[in-house]
Write a structure and sequence with these properties.
With about 575 residues, the protein is an alpha/beta fold. The chain is built from 19 helices and 14 strands. The protein has helices at about 15-30, 60-70, 95-110, 125-135, 165-175, 180-190, 200-210, 225-245, 250-255, 255-270, 275-285, 295-300, 315-320, 325-330, 350-355, 415-420, 455-460, 520-530, 540-550, and strands at about 40-45, 75-80, 115-120, 140-145, 150-155, 155-160, 380-385, 385-395, 405-410, 435, 470, 485, 505-510, 515. The strands form three sheets. It has an eight-stranded mixed beta sheet. α14 packs across α15 (about 350-355). The structure holds FE2/S2 (inorganic) cluster (FES). FE2/S2 (inorganic) cluster binds next to loops.
């Protein structure tokens, strides 16, 4: 039987395989390769280096370090690009393009002659897209996060993107910070290459990738600009070369129910980004599994927040790494996690824990009896306003607002929000529930991170810092406030959020996991008859997206991409 690895794999179809190989080898000779390399196993190195992605400013160097590791292990490295998504450089929102990137990853892994791959990612949507694509392609894959920025320093205060970006901007809106002070702090908010250094979506997804077994140990948290990050890159290349020969583990061997449950525990204990709920649902879907939101909520009830990172806590990702990183956290949670789960490194979580240094910084990774927050960083709500669920990050909410009843003030779209939120004549009190709709997966489209609606200027300037806000949008993992997100079904799909009117009473009872619209069914039925679905885009990717995207509780993936068939 012919060796189907290396250059012999996935030959272009001319109806003559030997000719296809002859051509392929010829082109490589043209690129300066010598014949003795032609029978080596091949490791693809997926690089998301892009000048439009400052978070990935180190990606090209990391790719070289991976290639070095691949060569040291006797395999042949090929660096190749995919779409690269940065949060602040992608209109209208990077989430709209996550599925497109996942398709790019999947199709390249299925098209290129590679036996394994190292996928360099980091900024929020990139690791989810890589995992989704890799699980669908089921090619042996290692995730190499680019790593987080170092924390900034400004006049004695450590700063972190983007939690402090939001805090400073809120102060600017409230008129409590001078322009010159804001500008000086601005210089320090993103002081190095790398991803946001608080427990935002990027750090959350890196920690989840490590817990799902897709990275080498320590890879989630080593700073982007550290020599350790470069050594992890080289080691990832070496390990990928071994996987290229053995053909294992494949992504679907790693992505099991037990691994997903472990990820749910890590999401709760890190007080990670609510965005991870959507990504985990999509990732699970690619393996034909459900990410069970009810189980996720139940897991949270007895999972304390141990990781003391902003926005829920005080420290930064570099501190988490120095404190012991993810394996130290696994050790703390050894009675809750399934430590038999495998990893790309060929070890189980338990085997990594057993050999990991015993040192741990108790201030950053708190002991079980002294948590940052007792339990339930993120809760899943249901009710007549969110029949298929909604999420709230309790660890970043105002406790007394978590049980609240107040009149709705409805913004019909992002444009309506922008036009009216700072109108001095806006009829709003701190008791109002701010409602944003038509900002979900279909509505915006792409479900932008607009769910943490700004506090109206007229209230912000009087010292109001939080209000109950609800929407079918998402929010950045670096944001905070009493914010109900991911309402499903969304308004643009005809969910009950579409029927809310100004002055309707909304009740949030987070303890009871309820979000309710106190309007009787007959009135709602009448309003439903008057509701018209908004127009959808007529062409291109936006049309495909709005026609085939699933709702938040299913991961906002395309319906034709989930499953393993
Ligand atoms: Fe890239 Fe925050 S914007 S990780």
């Amino acid at each position: 039987m012919k060796n189907r690895k290396g250059l012999r794999s996935r030959l272009a179809q001319y109806g003559d395989e030997e000719f296809a190989l002859f051509l392929r080898r010829g082109f490589l000779k043209g690129a300066g390769f010598t014949e003795e390399q032609f029978d080596l196993p091949i490791v693809g190195i997926l690089s998301t280096a892009s000048d439009f992605n400052p978070c990935h400013g180190t990606a090209a160097k990391l790719a070289e370090a991976v290639a070095k590791g691949v060569r040291l292990a006797g395999a042949l490295p090929f660096i190749f690009p995919t779409i690269s998504l940065h949060e602040a450089f992608t209109f209208p929102t990077s989430m709209l393009l996550r599925n497109l990137m996942s398709m790019d990853v999947e199709e390249m892994l299925k098209a290129l002659p590679l036996d394994s791959v190292v996928m360099i990612g980091g900024c929020d949507k990139t690791i989810p897209a890589e995992l989704m694509g890799a699980i669908s392609a089921d090619v042996p894959s290692i995730v190499l996060p680019v790593g987080s920025m170092l924390a900034g320093r400004h006049e004695g205060v450590r700063l972190g993107a983007c939690t402090d970006c939001r805090r400073l901007w809120a102060q600017h809106r409230a008129g409590t910070i001078e322009e010159a002070d804001l500008n000086r702090a601005h210089d320090q908010l993103m002081p190095t290459s790398g991803t946001c250094m608080v427990m935002g979506t990027a750090a959350t997804m890196a920690c989840i990738a490590e817990t799902l077994g897709f990275t080498l140990p320590g890879a989630a948290t080593a700073p982007a600009v550290s020599s350790e990050r470069m050594r992890i890159a080289e080691a990832s290349g070496k390990r990928a070369a071994e996987m290229a020969v053995s053909g294992a583990p494949t992504p679907r061997q790693l992505l099991t129910r037990q691994a997903l449950r472990n990820a749910a525990i890590i999401l709760q204990t890190t007080s990670g980004s609510t965005n991870a709920l959507v990504h985990l649902a999509a990732i699970a879907g690619r393996a034909g599994l459900d990410f069970d939101m009810t189980e996720f909520d139940a897991v949270g009830r007895d999972t304390p927040v141990l990781v003391n990172l902003k926005p829920a806590g005080s420290f930064f990702v570099e501190d988490f790494h120095a404190a012991g990183g993810i394996p130290a956290l696994w050790r703390r949670l050894k009675d809750k996690l399934d430590l038999s789960a495998p990893t790309v490194n060929g070890e189980t979580l338990g085997e990594i824990v057993a050999r990991w240094p015993v040192y741990v910084d108790d201030e950053v990774i708190r002991p079980l009896d002294r948590p940052v927050f007792p339990n339930q960083a993120i809760a899943v709500l249901t009710g007549n306003l969110a029949p298929n669920g909604a999420a709230i990050k309790l660890a970043s909410a105002t406790k007394k607002l978590c049980t609240h009843q107040g009149p709705a003030l409805v913004f019909d779209s992002l444009a309506d929000l922008e036009a009216r939120i700072d109108d001095p004549k806006l009829d709003v009190t701190p008791d109002h529930v701010l409602v944003l709709r038509n900002a979900g997966p279909i509505g915006a489209p792409g479900m932008p991170e607009a769910g943490a609606l700004p506090i109206p200027k007229k209230l912000g300037s009087k010292g109001v810092t939080d209000m109950v806000r609800i929407s079918d949008a998402r929010m950045s993992g670096t944001a905070y406030g009493t914010v109900v997100l991911h309402i499903s079904p969304e308004a643009s799909a005809g969910g009950p959020l579409a029927l809310v009117r100004d002055g309707d009473i909304i009740r949030l009872d987070a303890d009871a996991r309820k979000i309710e619209l106190l309007v009787d069914d007959a009135e709602l039925a009448k309003r439903r008859l008057e509701w018209k679905a908004p127009e959808k885009p007529k062409r291109g990717y936006a049309r495909l997206y709005t026609e085939r995207v699933t709702q938040a509780d299913k991961g906002c993936d395309f319906d034709f991409l989930s499953g393993t068939d």
